[in-house]
Write a structure and sequence with these properties.
The complex is a heterodimer of chains A (264) and B (255).
Chain A lengths: L1 H11 L7 H19 L1 H43 L4 H15 L3 H11 L3 E4 L2 E4 L2 H27 L2 H9 L4 H31 L11 H12 L2 H33 L3
Antiparallel strand pairs in A: 1-2
Chain B lengths: L11 E12 L2 E12 L3 E5 L6 H8 L7 E6 L2 E2 L6 H8 L2 E4 L11 H13 L3 H14 L15 H13 L5 E5 L7 H16 L3 E5 L3 H7 L2 E6 L2 E6 L1 H6 L4 H11 L1
Helix pairs in contact in B: 3-4, 3-5, 4-5, 5-6
Classes of the chains: A mainly alpha (264), B alpha/beta (255).
Chain lengths: 264, 255
């Protein structure tokens, strides 16, 4: 296995290759230098807004990481329940997956925004329940449904002989899942999981529609404040650039992993 | 059917009485009677599809017979209902598979250590020390850190035997453990099993290695079409079979 990998690496290094990620970042940087040269004034205004745009992007990253985190934990649990041999356990889990896989993310975000209160009362304490957390929940629900399906597929793809061998050593089904099956699934679910993460990240812009101050919302505010068509074009170009720079390496890395594990 | 009494001073550790099992309309086991005595080595031989592996799976509760009794020690396997009861049984029974079924994501040492630490609650250090001893016993002392994918079939099968022994079983079931191996690695696996039998481990083997079965077993059971056609000492079965079907099977192998 290891020697095979080494062989593949060696043959691909015969011609020194620069990663496409580096190429793309260079192209984007050059394009922006060009724009700065011909539209110095607009780019200078954009630079003033850059810290605010960056803090907006930070919110997108925060929402996406939380959503995929919650979605993963929930998804593994639901995926395992789906495979239960007891119908009264597996049927609701399947219902959950079908419901949230077939719901538009924007509708779920709206739903989460209005169904949860703006603050939660714990005793005499009032804890705020900000919109960005509601948007996170709205994204985590469909994420968990997708992850449940990804894990279910991976679990089913592991040879049944592994279950038999574990049972023969005295493992319960739950312990087999924990110690034998899930560790073998990690490798297989990584590429689809990262794909989903990139998708979730891009969907975080939907949170702007319920008033969360993330990148797209900051861009809208900037565009309204400056109120110049050329600036508006530039600021949305900046938004696209920032998302590209964050998501593209993830997509590339996923493709790399897919290729690497395709042999097994 | 009377059993041969090579080990009559010991009570049977495994006892099957009138065991029947069908998969749909396929009657796989028809009234199987079988005894394995403590410290005994019994080989089940017979043509493919005669239900040999199914017998082993009924003994460790992977399959439940439709009718009949399966008793291991004091445990009535046929009437176990909960997963916890079956787990308690399987901790006492080692099982070695034709396809080894090692855990591919774990090293050799981790394969051997996983069940003792996670199921029996043995301390990691103790379990690792014991695992190394077992690996030395199956002559794989230098392969601790290798992954199953890096080993030959014979080496993987010896790891699988060490993994089964790490649970300190009372009994080990071998399911055609050399059938998937290259001819040159069969010998190394058989010598490990031979050593186990000599050490007094109770072994029930399903095998196609007739010469080995004859040499190592205390008793041979010949099955065909889901029935036990004949059983007896290796000498009786291989050199003086009474049943014409046994005779035909043995002769076909000779030629």
């Amino acid at each position: 296995m290891a020697s095979e990998d080494a062989l593949i690496l060696r043959t691909s290094r015969v011609v020194p290759r620069i990663s496409p990620v580096v190429w793309w970042i260079a192209i984007v940087a050059l394009a922006w230098l060009g724009l700065a040269h011909f539209h110095g004034n607009t780019v200078a205004t954009l630079r003033v807004w850059l810290p605010l745009l960056a803090s907006g992007l930070w919110m997108n990253i925060l929402i996406s990481v939380l959503a995929i985190g919650i979605g993963t934990v929930l998804g593994i649990i639901v995926g395992a329940l789906e495979l239960s041999r007891m119908r009264w356990v597996s049927a609701p889990a399947r219902g959950y997956v079908q419901a949230f896989r077939n719901a538009p993310m924007l509708v779920l975000i709206f739903f989460a925004t209005y169904v949860f209160p703006f603050e939660i009362q714990v005793g005499s304490l009032y804890l705020p329940f900000p919109d960005w957390i509601k948007a996170t929940i709205g994204l985590a629900l469909p994420a968990s449904a997708h992850i449940a399906e990804i894990f279910r597929g991976a679990i089913l793809s592991i040879a049944s002989a592994q279950w038999e061998a574990s049972a023969s050593l005295g493992f319960s089904r739950a312990r087999t899942l924990r110690w034998v099956i899930l560790p073998q699934c990690v490798k297989r679910v990584l590429p689809p999981w990262m794909n989903l993460y990139a998708m979730i990240t891009m969907s975080t812009t939907l949170a702007s529609l319920v008033g969360v101050t993330e990148l797209l919302e900051v861009a809208r505010i900037a565009s309204n404040t400056v109120n110049r068509t050329d600036f508006t074009i530039f600021v949305y170009l900046a938004v696209l650039t920032l998302f590209f720079l964050y998501c593209y390496p993830i997509t590339r890395f996923t493709a790399h992993l897919e290729q690497k594990y395709a042999f097994h | 059917m009377p059993q041969s009494d090579t080990f009559s001073e010991h009570p049977p550790l495994v006892r099957l009485r009138k065991v029947h099992l069908s998969f749909g309309s396929n009657h796989v086991l028809k009234c199987i009677d079988l005894n394995v005595r403590q410290g005994g080595a019994v080989s089940i031989i017979g043509p493919s599809g005669s239900g040999k592996s199914t017998i082993l799976r009924c003994i460790n509760g992977l399959l439940t017979p439709d009718r009949g009794e399966v008793v291991v020690g004091d445990t009535p396997v046929h009437s176990l209902r909960t997963e916890a009861e079956r787990i308690a049984l399987r901790k006492r029974i080692g099982f070695v598979f034709q396809q080894y079924n090692l855990f591919p994501h774990l090293t050799v040492l981790q394969n051997v250590v996983l069940a003792p630490t996670r199921i029996l609650g043995v301390e990691r250090e103790t379990a690792e020390r014991e695992a190394r001893e077992l690996l030395a016993k199956v002559r794989l002392a230098d392969k601790d850190d290798a992954y199953p994918g890096q080993l030959s079939g014979g080496q993987q099968q010896r790891v699988a035997i060490a993994r089964a022994l790490a649970m300190h079983p009372q009994l080990v079931l071998f399911d055609e453990v050399t059938s998937a191996l290259d001819p040159e690695t069969v010998g190394e696996v058989l010598s490990v099993i031979r050593q186990l039998v000599q050490d007094g481990m109770t072994c029930l083997l399903v095998t196609h290695e007739m010469r080995f079965a004859e040499e190592v077993s205390h008793e041979i059971v010949f099955t065909e079409g889901g029935e036990i056609v004949e059983h007896g000492t290796p000498r009786d079965i291989f050199h003086a079979p009474r049943n014409p079907r046994t005779h035909a099977f043995i002769n076909a192998l000779r030629n």
